[in-house]
Structure formats: structure tokens, C-alpha cells
Amino acid sequence: MTRMQDLAQFELPVGFRGRGAVLVQLWWIVQATFFRCSPQFAYRFRAWLLRLFGARVGRGTVIRPTVRITYPWKVSIGDHVWIGDDAELYSLGEIEIGAHVVVSQRSYLCAADHDYAREDFCIRAKKIVIEEQAWVAADVFVAPGVRIGKGAVIGARSSVFKDMPESMVCVGSPCQPVRPRVMEG
């Protein structure tokens, strides 16, 4: 019988986490305590904690205390970004979020995967980019390596496996552009 994957062969690439094991563990402790237990309105405090651990965080961000970020040093967040409750930035690879972006509650940005065609099941970091003025609505999954265009709207519960164009409303699983985003006034 052919083995599809042999996890005994798996090796985390040298430097994959981007920081040493002690700093990774320290971040996870800080995130589980000071970050998560901070008052709802303590947006600047949470931004400060993220910056302390190497994230680039712009002005006027609204990052809820229940947001989870795996490695903040691999995250860049622009000015006036909102990240909702229980959103997950699984930043094994880089995640870049432009200015005036909304990542709504329970959305999951997954910046890495495994090569299922290899027996060693190697892990691969793949950067996610969400360009300025985009809205990732509630409970959206964004796959590794995806770029969401400027001003795009990704509908609730969509699963995004490929790049989405700018200024389009996109929905579904798999997510597809369905119509232009038209602004009133």
C-alpha cells in the first residue's frame, strides 16, 4: 500500500516561525492573558502589544480582544482597520492588511498549507494580501496565497481560494465575483 503522508518525515523548516521558541511561547502567553482579557475599548493597548511583538499596526485600528494572531511579527495592518471578534490571523506566512479594511467576526485568514503531494507533508508559507478598503464579511475563509483586491466585498461564509478582483462583490464557496461594488453618493 502506498503511503500518502508519513508524518514521521515532517520537519519544520529552519526559521519558519520567524522568531525563537521562547518568544513564540511568550507571545502566546501574552495573547491568552493581557491581550484577550483587556477591556473591549482598549484598542490602542492591543495595538501596542502587537507592535511590541513585531507587528506593523497603523493608526486608528479596532482589533477586538478575541482576535487570535499566531505570529504578530508576520502581520502588517494599515490605518483604520477593523478586525472583529474571534477572527483568526493564522500568520504562519505573512498577512498584509491595507488601510480601511474590515475583517469581520469569525473570519479565518490562513497563510500556510502543506504539500499533500509529498510524503513528508512539508509546510509552505503563502502570503495573504487584503488591499485597502476591502470588506471580508463574517465567517469567511481566506486560503494561503490569496490577494483580495482594493474595495472588494467578500460575502459572509464565503471560501476564497483564488485572488478576487478589486471593486467587486464576491460570494460563495468557492468564492466568485458576482457584480461591481457600486458606491452611492
Please summarize what this structure is.
With 185 residues, the chain is α/β, with parallel strands linked by helices. The protein contains 2 helices and 19 strands.
Describe this structure in words.
The protein has 185 residues and is of the alpha/beta class. The protein has two helices and 19 strands. The strands form four sheets. Strands 2-5-8-13-16-18-19 form a seven-stranded mixed β-sheet. Strands 1-4-7-12-15 form a five-stranded parallel β-sheet, with helices on one face. It has a five-stranded parallel β-sheet with strand order 3-6-9-14-17, with no helix packed on it. A hairpin with a 2-residue loop joins strand 18 and strand 19 (175-180). It starts with 20 loop residues before the first helix and ends in a 5-residue tail after the last strand. 30% of the residues are buried.
What layout of secondary structure does this protein have?
Layout: H1 21-35, H2 43-52, E1 56-57, E2 62-63, E3 68-69, E4 75-77, E5 82-83, E6 88-90, E7 95-97, E8 102-103, E9 108-110, E10 112-114, E11 123-125, E12 128-130, E13 135-136, E14 141-142, E15 147-148, E16 153-154, E17 159-160, E18 168-172, E19 175-180
Parallel strand pairs: 1-4, 2-5, 3-6, 4-7, 5-8, 6-9, 7-12, 8-13, 9-14, 12-15, 13-16, 14-17, 16-18
Antiparallel strand pairs: 10-11, 18-19
